[in-house]
Amino acid sequence: MRPSPFARRKTALNAQMNVVPYIDVMLVLLVIFMVTTPMLTTGVDVDLPKEQTNTLSQQQLPVIVSLTDSNELYISYENNVDMPITEAELINILSNLQTQNQNAGEAPVQVMINADQNNQYGAIMSLMAKLQQAGVQKVGLLTGKPLPMPQ
User: Fold this and answer.
1) CA end-to-end span of the chain, whole Å?
2) Per its UniProt record, what Pfam families does this chain match (predicted)?
């Protein structure tokens, strides 16, 4: 007797995991991360000089004072990021931070200068003098990674 063309055939169960939906989800997540990552970068656009330096290692985050090539000042500390500021406000804020740290028995405030490499030497020295007026004793200069040497 010939089997009926409408009869169901018994096939073995497929016990393997179907990974196609997981791959689709991963590709969607990849696209989302690729789109959102450029939006996460914050900061003042400053062209740093490129030099080989040691990395900063300490528990307390430094105050970052940015000086653009058009001599605009920005400050980043605690929860304030790239806040435009005048020289008088800078001295006032740094003096207040210095006294807060002294009252709490913490290390003195460390300030990092984030200056554009096209700034005049006098503008950076003037900024350092303002930091000294505020009572800041530790000042560092931020740099970018050095460019590879041509061979």
Assistant:
1) 84
2) ExbD (PF02472)
74: which strand partners? 66, 84
Q: What share of the chain is helix, strand, coil (3-state, %, to 5)?
A: 35, 20, 45
Q: Which pLDDT band holds residue 28 (cuts at 50, 70, 90)?
A: very high
Cβ pair 123, 70 in contact under 8 A: no
Domains of the chain: 63-141 (3.30.420.270)
pLDDT in tens, 30-68: 999 888 887 776 666 666 666 665 655 455 678 888 888
- The percentage of residues in the chain with a pLDDT greater than 90, rounded to a whole number, is 6
